[in-house]
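Hey,
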Amino acid sequence: MKSRTQCAGFALALILTGIGGTPAGASPAEGPQDFGPVVVTGVPKSATPPARPTQKVVQLATIDTAISAGATAYVYSELRAYNADQPNLIDNEIRCTGAGRSNVVMGENVLPATHPNPALRDITIVNRFLVTATSSGKLTCVLYLRTNSTSAFEARETVAGTLRFASTAVGGDANGTAMQRSLPVGNLPVTTTVVAPVVTATLPAGYRQLAVIADVEFHRGPEPTPDSPIHYSTARFTLTATTSGGPACASAPVAQTEETVVRTVNHAAIPLYTKVAVNPGCTQVSAKVTTTYIAGNPGTVGGAAPGLTDETGEIGTTPNHTSAMTHLFVVPS
């Protein structure tokens, strides 16, 4: 079983080593933009119902690249948050525009620097995905911090991180389509087992290995009664991948981790990674994420988030947009 830190480490190694080699037909990766440390102040306090939460939106990094219509880029980012003085929401959101469009957000809460658990007071949120160009031109991707306090006080935190294109020409399936699935709007209850997302694809000739990558957004479940002593949700997250269609097709090593989300943290971004060989004659791949209830109040797997303000403002304020959350994708090499 790999920890979340190990999974993020695999993701970074994925970038630095070119997934065990440069993806088939890939151009060199574009240079990264590192940022921080940035001290973020004026983080809005928790809203009192019926008011809606106000989120502060801070642009932290921008990358762009020339890309041809039909080409697929692999976007990779890390957002670290620490030195908070209140429990604060930390969302790592990337919005890509221009030659291709995609919005993806992953997040969880960082706890104050005085909290006894160091893993909860210094967090790193990985956000990575594929975006396919619908026209030739410039693809621009911007990383935003979305943040608000979950306490009754205005807050602060420090953030740092990186944004980069891991590749600007990722191979697709037999039709040239990116092998990626994201969950639609709506959360999936985890009372027993949830299998989603799932990617199945027919492979073109020439692939020798596939990197299989998933980011899962897991939400803590509510207490069944106001006086319930149980304030957490625990689930197991398992990423599996198999190939088929030939005489001796391989399966990937299982990537698995468990996560307990407590009430002040509320939700967690779970990165998963594995890889599988494509042996001669094997023409199909199937990959999936299985989330299994373990203990506490049943949580949910997060679907796409609607009504996110384009800039600092109340949730739902126009203009706004929807960003994918839980997603799974396959990168060939």
